[in-house]
Amino acid sequence: MVGSVEVGALSEKSNGKVDLLMEEFDPMAVVSEPLPPVVVDNVECVNGEAKTKTREIVLGKNVHTSCLEVTEPEANDEFTGDKDAYMAGVLARYRRTLIERTKYHLGYPYNLDFDYGSLAQLQHFSINNLGDPFIESNYGVHSRQFEVGVLDWFARLWEIEKNDYWGYITNCGTEGNLHGILVGREVFPDGILYASRESHYSVFKAARMYRMECVKVDTLISGEIDCTDFRTKLIPNKEKPAIINVNIGTTVKGAVDDLDLVIQTLEECGYSHDRFYIHCDGALFGLMMPFVKRAPKVSFKKPIGSVSVSGHKFVGCPMPCGVQITRIDHINALSRNVEYLASRDATIMGSRNGHAPIFLWYTLNKKGYKGFQKEVQKCLRNAHYLKDHMRDAGISAMLNELSSTVVFERPLDEEFVRRWQLACQGNIAHVVVMPSVTIEKLDDFLEELIQKRATWYQDEKVRPPCLSAEIGVENCACPLHKILGKLSLGLHDQWSPDNFPVTACFRTLGQKYGTVENLVGSLSRFFFWKLLNPTWQTSYREPDQNQIYKITQLSNQQILTQISKKLKLAKALAGNSIENSYKQFIASL
């Protein structure tokens, strides 16, 4: 049960009476309850680094540790009111729990900043938008007029005329993906589905449900689709049409696939516009990108087939919902007449929540384009604030351009993860900065994370993991890359790439290392190993973790001084010209 909240309603000791909840109710009990066995002891140490073990979730095994039991009413409940009092107490305390948990919500892309009090009056009606939103059904308690208004708003946003689109308000973002890919499959029954490995799990669920051939495409470090690999996957299958899922914000890293490059790759591989179908999964960023000036456009003026977005994420609808828009020419391949409804069936679900369109309509009217633009700017600004402060604290962190998803090293404490409701994958976690996430909340999170982190790594037996493979060398603050970063910074201070003379020796090294940046990185590694192991030239040996950790405690200047002494370049670095310093350094190698 949840902490002290024992809510099995009937007990033998109560002689049939309902036990009321205790007045002292801990709203944070859900956090302090025992961890399920699948998440306990989830960290192991490998070569001195903290590594997250794979979490196993066993289907059919109930690992949830709390339950509010449903019980039959007693014969005298109508007169005593005990059951009503009990349920009122449960709901009141549950509300307190929700308020408390909302304060510590950072890991999932939900905007919790909303006020729909004026819509409470509509909760007394069973509003159902079953069937096609553009066709009046025999069921009269609906909100189609609100739904079509919302759809028209999104059609304008994504630049498609009223007469050219069809769409509906879905029950969630997954339904939008299921519908978009289904339309693609109906247009191209023998088509192959291409999706990046970092696509939402619902994309691969769609492939399984529809028995589609699915090809996973590699991604860049950023999480964006790798169009070079996409090209290699397309060419062997040129005889079959392509159905492509393009991510407008990946689930974990918030990466935005380059839609224009995807289209260009298809065209260069010989796919005409009538041989491919693109579905854009814009669950979160599909509504944010249009309000960022430098962001690439998601538009039906481009050869795309459908776009979906979630309504409970950036918009802030209190119930899961979404919007799916496709071209009206495509929907005819999918829709069927349903006499029972006096409508056509082209949606995934039959009954559809009629309240959701009203909530969406209400928010779109209240905020408008300018309101959303302000909120987007706030989210991006706060995301940069979080990322910068993490890096200043020595925490590995990455933030993609145009994204509000900050990726960082996974905390070692699962209780901390649960407290802040962080989404984790492997060695990384993320914070999704939404309109409801304030600077004050980020400061509280940072303060607690830094304090906890100091205890996780205090004995030096376990050290932060290397995340260069997950978020890139430049974003990794593990002991090795921290020192290499310091060395590279020092080298750039001494020899700016812009000031490198194009000498014969530089050209020779340039042929080997490619770019100045690669050269500087290679020299940094040489400096590092030379400093740690003076016999490197005769007996190469990788530095151990203790050596790396000690070096990370040195300042940039201390490191440069040590390097200069080791390589006998102190005088050259201090007094000679850049060109002579560089030549002497090359000579010392």
UniProtKB/TrEMBL annotation:
It catalyses: L-serine + H(+) = ethanolamine + CO2. The modification N6-(pyridoxal phosphate)lysine is found at K313. The keyword Lipid biosynthesis does not apply. PROSITE patterns: DDC_GAD_HDC_YDC. GO terms for molecular function: carboxy-lyase activity; pyridoxal phosphate binding. Keywords: Decarboxylase, Lyase, Pyridoxal phosphate. One of its GO terms (biological process) is carboxylic acid metabolic process. The keyword Lyase applies. It comes from the Eukaryota. Its cofactor is pyridoxal 5'-phosphate. Belongs to the group II decarboxylase family. This is Pyridoxal phosphate-dependent decarboxylase. It comes from Dillenia turbinata.
